[in-house]
Amino acid sequence: MTSAPPTPCARPGCDGALEDDGFCDTCGRAAAPAAPAAPVVEEGPATAASVASGLSHGSGPPTGSGPSTGSGPTPSGRSGSGAGGSGRTRSGSSRRRIGAGLVPIDPEPAADPADAVMADPVVPERSRYCGACDAPVGRGRDDRPGRTEGFCPQCGTRFSFTPSLAAGDLVADQYEVLGCLAHGGLGWIYLARDRRVRDRWVVLKGLLNTGDAAALAAADAEQGFLAQLVHPHIVRIYNVVTDGDATYIVMEYIGGRSLKAMRDPREPMDPEHALAYVLEVLPALAHMHERGLLYCDFKPDNVVQTGTDVTLIDLGAVRRIDDPGGDVWGTVGYQAPEIAPDGAGPSVASDVYTVGRTLAVLVANFDFHGAMRDVLPLPEDAPALEHEPLRRLLDRATAPDPADRFVSVDELAEQMLGVLRQLTAAHTTPPPRLSTVLAAPPAAVGVDGPATPAELATALPPPLPDPDDPSTPELVAAAAQGPRAVLVAVSAEGALDTDQARQSAVTAHLDAGEVEAAGRALEAHAVPGEWAWTWLRARHAAAAGRAGLAAQLADEVADALPGELAPPFALAVLGEHESIAVGGTPDADTAERFARVWRTDRTWTGAAFALARLRVGADDRAGAVAVLDEVPPTSVHAADARVAAVRVLLGAPRLTRSTVMEAGARTEAVDLDPLRAAGLQTEVLQACRALPADERTGTVLGCALDDDDALGFALEERYRLRARFARTAAERFALVDAANDARPWTAR
Question: What is the pLDDT of residue 181?
Fold first, then answer.
């Protein structure tokens, strides 16, 4: 099989060929404009001809199809701004789904890197600060422009905001500079051609303030961090070169747009896309943490889409987890509150905080870098936060106390995915997905009617065993034999007294109906603040009939695990129970939770039946039937749902011919055993006889609606069948009497 011949470059004077990414292997330029072609369905393989950079994207709007603008971190968190480019030049024309395949995105087209060069590389005066003391420098006065070079009037440190390289300069006899792409807290960023490697596009990152010792140290650290971080979602480093007294990091050029550039300043980003984009790069953040590194400056500027890939860029603020000293670089509005001279310092929790703030900035308009730099907007001021799971996710990720945040990026990602599933379920049904922290859902609770707290307690899924706990293997084996076997295992001589063993003992007591014993174990061992123990306490409170306490504890778990469905289901069940107890109507939150759980995962069948009940109570019988029809045929409760739908139709205050006809057709379609079928058919036939005379036309269950005798004989047949299988004599006599009453008068 022979490969297709290469496409020659159409640029004047160039004899190179276009690579798979659309750029020439000789001149490095994008393909010359051509007539529109038919869309490509499949994305071709990427090649190494496209290269990228770790620059920060900034505050200016994108120009045309070129890359976005950039900003970088400073020790105080202030961000610079300016035009610049970013984005891997890999091309792709087919749509891809991100966020675990839940959200489709269009590819970001390849742009000509040369178009990203700043026409006037100037640091705006409002962004000029001393690198040592953070005082404003280089500001104009009396209509005179500020100096771009000089000394800080407060501490005397030298500052310089003038690019040290210009177009045409050759760095280290290898990299030809085309101009500035952007500037940031750690240096100017230049676009260059690598004259020794096929004229590929690269980025040179120098220093913004050459007199700043902290910036020099940070740049030196970045070189080492970049060299050891190899991940498909992290910008790559190619080289570190020295030219005269200056050192430059040579990085991959990324051609595309940052999330900051994608987000309209006036219109927040769709929460589904915001979650999906951030989810794509969280594995890169986890990769850093696994290697003992902190990113410190996660923000929309530093997440870039190129083609259909999403990349984390600008590692200038990266530092070691165990590094107790040195400057901490970050950006005001994203940086955690403990990043202060007298604070706890950076940690995995502070990185989690920056992710939460990034999501908040993407989905809401608020003064995130000013008056609300440490708080989130209220739902009434940010419509996206009216989504309960998203609000809970952001609240936990950005909790003021680091101990209250997600303990790892992996845990954050897991809950983000759960929240994303709940959001996308509003317009599409996501595929079922097992929880990684809780056992399978209670499919039956609430199917036969509103569940009591005690019924809920027996059905709530327990926390999954901790795979790292040494007692887990033995406890899992014992659980297969029932709760008694678990209690024997945890109390046996020599049994390990671990947190998992204690939790398993509480679960076993509850499964065995030993509510008091479970309460004593909880009082002795429950750890405050740990969601697994809080969940067991909620289950115990429900078993003890303390619905209010159970709801309070379930709400705490919903705060801790916003992506899980069990907590909102428990809150909805308890809300329905409470409203019935006081003779009221379930509130909107209860109905919304049942609906959200059901939309997200069709295995939570109890939520469908509960939602149908609430819709009947709101006089929305069509909506109730619709949700019951959504119970999949493969469900063990599929027949129950079809029967319930028939009864919803027959329960209307005023029956019509069309309603009864539909109920009859549904009854014939459902697969039931003869006894149960006879019971449902009896209800339909009784409804037929109750119709007004002028509406009794047509046939139901083989009987003409206007034939009273036929309806009577059909009813008699069903009643007598049911009587033969009656469980008590009284029930049998009542059914025989009903059969005699239904039988038409005859001459016999």
Answer: 87
